[in-house]
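Morning F.,

Quick status update on the modeling queue. The single chain you submitted on Monday has been processed. Sequence for confirmation:
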Amino acid sequence: MSSRSPRPAATALRFGYGTNGLADLRLDDALALLADLGYDGVGLTLDHMHLDPLAPDLATRTHRLARRLAALGLEVTVETGARYVLDPRRKHGPSLLDPDPGARARRTGLLIRAVEVAAGLGAHAVHCFSGTVPAGTDEDTAWKRLAEALLPVLDAATAAGVPLAVEPEPGHLLATLAGFHRLRHDLGNPEALGLTLDIGHCQCLEPLPPADCVRAAGPWLRHVQIEDMRRGVHEHLPFGDGEIDFPPVLAALADTGYQGLTVVELPRHSHAGPHFAERSLPFLRRAARTAASSAPRPATTTQAGPHPDGHRPAAEPFAAAPPAVEPPAVEPSVVAPPAAEPSVVAPPAVKLPAVEPSVVAPPAAEPSVVAPPAVEPPAVEPSVVAPSAVEPPVVDSSAGPRPPDAPPAGEPSAVPEGTTP
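Structure tokens below.
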């Protein structure tokens, strides 16, 4: 008789798709599409085209939407990452860290409205994030502003019975799981405060591998976003275009007993939203089946350190682009400095502090390198000048141009991705 303890029963995962990746569709059309494709729910980003939170008759429109969701059999989580819903000139402005108290109050008011909408829809949670640290603001002041601005929202969330799920966002003040725990401590660990975990962000900058991030975050998980991503680059990618090994991640998520939605987040792919919505769900279901059928996994370490390269099962679709070679570990504070505006694209010539300068950029080129062909240049391999394997710092491509139209079926990697909203 085996002495091994039985593995606890895992929770069946439920998948959704974010409306910020279907922004070119009317909300009702987007919901019908997701229901037809077999999704369990939707991540609803409140925006001017999708249940505008600032337009009249919000309560009436919310009630009508609740009936529609019920008729379609869709669950919902409310997200608040619309880029310009409060300010048509500033992305995600004003934030909870704005120097102007009146501006911070506008963001707080939006989040309270989102809590009211979530209560009316029967949503699992309300998602939010901190924002970037304004120029001239020290971090201690920024943390104090964040805690104070969230207090009224937490009061509303407690009264409504809807968790507030804060997301660590690369480039923001609260960028990592460690930042979430600092906020939780600053606020006195309120019951209404939970966590939104973005699996791609774990790959991008957390010191733990994504599956271990899930296990570490388990007690506070209230919302999960999922997409592919590469180490050190904050760019949301279709499944198979990044480096994440998804079966272990989904196994870890199921083992935590997480009860909410796991929502695909491809906010820069609205131009091909139906295409990626159709292809993402089969991928996730295959990965979940692989996770469920795998042998019991040994306990993973919780020691911080660089995660190894993920191995992608050969049978998975979207596997045209193999995982890139894992670069050296990059400290989160270097990868995504809180003061950096995520909409600013870092120039490609920026060097990683953790990489030897001779690898990222050779010493200043001798004149013989640019001299006429008759002069023999130094023996420098082209790969040294611009090595494809050198990982850049966290680069946020949200300011880049809109990618081209969707590729033909079977070529999802041809459509570039951007960042979170």
